[in-house]
Amino acid sequence: MREKILLLLMLLGSFCLQAQLLSPDEFLPHKLGEHFTPYHLLVDYFEHVDANSGQFTLQEYGRTNENRPLIYGIISAPENMKAIEEIRKNNLRRTGLLEGNPDQSSPAIVWLSFGVHGNEAGASESSMATIYELANPKNKAVQSWLKDVVVIIDPCINPDGYSRYTHWNRGACNIIPDPNPAGREHKEPWPGGRVNHYLFDLNRDWAWQTQIESQQRMVIYHQWMPQLHVDFHEMGHNDPYYFAPAAQPYHEYITKWQADFQQDIGKNHAKYFDDNHWAYFTREIFDLFYPSYGDTYPTFHGAIGMTYEQAGHGMAGRAIQTDNGDTLTLHDRIAHHKTTALSTIEISANNADKLTRSFEDYFRNSRTDPKGKYKSFVIKKSNAKDKVAAFCEMLDRNHIRYGKAGKDRSMKGYDYATGAAHTVSISKDDLLISAHQPLAVLTQVLLEPEPSLPDSLTYDITAWALPFAYGLEAYAFTEKMTPSGEYRFEKVSLPENKNPYAYLLPWTSLKDAKFLGQVQEQGLVLRYATEPFAVDGKNFDRGTLMILKSDNRKFEGDLDAVVRKMAKESNRNIHAATTGLVTSGNDFGSDKFRLIQRPKIGVFSGEKISPYSFGQAWQLLDQDLQFGFTVLDPSVISSDEISAYNVLVMPEGTYGLDSAALVVLVAWVRKGGRLIALGNSVTNLAGKKGFALKKKLSTKKNTRNKRNALPPPYAGRERRDISNYNPGAVFKLQLDETHPLAFGLGGRYYSLKTNRMNYAWLKNGWNVA
Predict the structure, then answer these.
(1) How far apart (Å, rounded) are the C-alpha atoms in residues 756 and 724?
(2) Going by C-beta distance under 8 Å and a sequence separation of 6 or more, which residues neighbour residue 624?
(3) Which of 202, 428, 541, 677 fits 681 for a cystine, CB–CB 3.0-4.6 Å?
(4) Do 379 and 474 contact (CB within 8 A), yes or no?
(5) pLDDT at 111
(6) What are phi and psi of 506, to 5 degrees?
(7) What share of the chain in percent tops pLDDT 70?
(8) 381 vs 436, 474, 488, 533, 542, CA distance in Å?
(9) Going by C-beta distance under 8 Å and a sequence separation of 6 or more, which residues neighbour residue 107?
């Protein structure tokens, strides 16, 4: 009798759970697709599923800059959820990131990422429809798939951008959706919801992890290491649906297995789209080369990484008329994404054993026989400490292993600085990265000097090697070398002399600039060296910061205590000079040590300015330097308002400066103002009266007008246009080391150039690079 009662209670409990699990239409104050769902309600729905499904668990993995929760959920068959931690660890054993022999019978792991671009809101909306189908016990087909698959679902990678877009749309739209593309609800205002708080495109941040969302997400990603990852996007509203296989070019390190399985997935999706007569395309536009996308980054982690693109985007609103006379609705967008999500899980479940075995083989082969030409990479100990520390932080975030070289030796290696091979002296204390490690492919992709590009028609930048990005003296070797011992950084030690003549800090990195700003905030007066000098038996280069006691006699407070406290907090090795009498160079009272004016910074922002470019300046000042500034509208250029600032930053944009504004700007510069024009914003100044900047005339001869020469055919125009297009390449610059803008950078600088703008040497001014 007792057993019958227990069984009855269990059945009733199961029935109650099923009855309590509501669909999005039942839970939300609107039907899914009728309105965009505010982010807090999206989170509420996932919490509802967590509370009412025995096979789903929801976790918060961080917070955005605007303090919105970042969440992800895990769902699988009940028996898998009971052993979920062991499944996760077993999967890491497949990669070699965790020691031990993996169990071959555990399920495959599929990760679904929705809404990295906030105004591609149909993606995040579809995450709710997807999780309901996965958690619904009445969907027997899905429940059978979940026996062989663990699904990780991130419903919104970019909550700040999604909220910016959805809140605007809800405030701008009519009760009845207006499909007219000219309507207000289809004209998203600046800066748009695509980007995050600092207006950064998170879709390009997977490897670099400059943004807080990426940094926190990657911690979880490396704890799971899925076999398959999908990045759900939206594109122009007149396009159909795009899914795998991806377009060429493929990076040469992508395996045949990864490429072939994309074909199988595409066929599975096509089956459903054909049945519904939905338009779609494959193998176009979205390639697999640049390593920091939501498809390529997982691919270089051994997964099948894919981008799915639904027509829609920020212009689509809830409904929009397309060029063929049809109306694309938010309901359509949700249905299409839900279909590919479930189709992905279906084919993963049907091929779970193949996925896990191939995944394990991928990492075994990577560890034992890395694909790339270079097997070892050395970063010289003599590099600026901050640059090496930032580089190591990047490696740590990507779980790339490194250590000390361990012994002195000489070997022939590739020199990143010269682009040539020669004999290199390796010190035992140099930093060594071996490609023989679990994430071998990612290591080689990020460090290879010149990635092989099989097809020049590519979607993004084609050069990104980390030694160039961090400005490091580095070498690549074809031979295998194994690190010996942990690479450690020396701890900061404060000077013993507590009452020096002056404090000195070499100028080598952004952290020194941050220290400068913080010290200025305290009211201290600083100088910088324009020439090298030596004092107390130590050599100091141009740009060295100096805090003279004689400059700060009016400082109220304990100067020594303030400087030492800030040096400790900033992790700066300051030198306490015992005298102002140098052993070489100029004495401290010389005019070769110039006063530093405290910046009063204005940064232009608004409709005519690139959100990305403004966002870079915003993050640099707000986060990296933590220096206060004012956001200005470009209209103030023609007024006296700019006199309140001594530094003006022009992010990329079309400012439309008239003659009156240019006169004011020229006069401001001549009074000592510092104008920083970024990227294509210099086109607003080039050739204008008062500015020395001139466009460089092309020396290329025009051969199209030769007698009897036929014009090129229409076909092939995209490939011909590549000759006038630079998606991104690294250029080596020779620096004038005597100019203050070059201080701390050395004799060369590697610049990532993403356009073809070219200007002549300044005749009346200084050419720094």
Answers:
(1) 7
(2) 510, 514
(3) 677
(4) yes
(5) 98
(6) -60, 145
(7) 93
(8) 22, 10, 11, 23, 21
(9) 76, 80, 87, 147, 148, 149, 150, 352, 356
- Per-residue pLDDT reduced to its tens digit, 196-229: 999 999 999 999 999 999 999 999 999 999 999 9
Taking phi first (over 0 means left), then psi (-120 to 50 degrees means alpha), and beta for anything else, what does residue 586 get? beta
Report the chain's C-alpha Rg in angstroms.
29
Whole-number Cα distances in Å, 410 to 466, 472, 484: 23, 19, 16
User: Which residue, among 400, 332, 367, 402, has the nearest Cα to 126 in the 3D structure?
Assistant: 332
**Taking the CB of residue 365, how many other CB atoms lie within 10 A of it?**
15
Exposure string of 533-571, with b = 16+ CB inside 10 Å and e = fewer, is bebbeeebbbbbbbbbeebbeeeeeebbebbbebbeebe
Residue type for 275, please? D
Q: In sequence order, what DSSP letters do the residues of 214-246 get, joined into one string? A: HHHHHHHHHHH--SEEEEEEEE-TTS-EE-SSP
* Cα–Cα distance for residue pair 115/135, rounded to 1 Å: 21
Which tokens is 250 given?
A: 């493929």
- Model confidence at 12, pLDDT cuts 50, 70, 90, reads very low
Q: CA angle 139-145-147, nearest 5°?
A: 110
Tell me which residue has tokens 């990265």: 433
| Residues near 319 by beta carbon (within 8 Å), at least 6 away in sequence | 177, 178, 179, 327, 328, 329, 330
User: CA separation (Å) from 682 to 17, 191, 606, 686?
Assistant: 62, 21, 17, 6
**Integer Cα distance of 162 and 156 in angstroms:** 8
- pTM of the entire predicted model: 0.90
Task: Determine the Cα–Cα distance for residues 329 and 313; give it in Å rounded to an integer.
Answer: 11
420 phi, psi to nearest 5 deg: -130, 160
Q: Is the pLDDT of residue 13 over 60?
A: no
SS3 377: strand
Token pair of 490 as six digits: 């020396």
Alpha carbon distance 151, 144 (integer Å): 13
Quote the pLDDT of residue 722: 61
The residue type found at 321 is: Q
Q: What is the pLDDT of residues 537-595, one digit of tens each?
A: 999 999 999 999 999 999 999 999 999 999 999 999 999 999 999 999 999 999 999 99
Within 8 A by CB and 6+ apart from 575, the residues are 495, 503, 504, 505, 536, 538, 540
Q: What is the pLDDT of residue 569?
A: 93
Whole-number Å distance between alpha carbons of 355 and 258: 10
Q: For 239-250, b where at least 16 C-beta lie within 10 A, e where not — what string?
A: bebbbbbbbebb
pLDDT for res 460 = 59
What are phi and psi for residue 247, nearest 5 degrees?
-80, 160
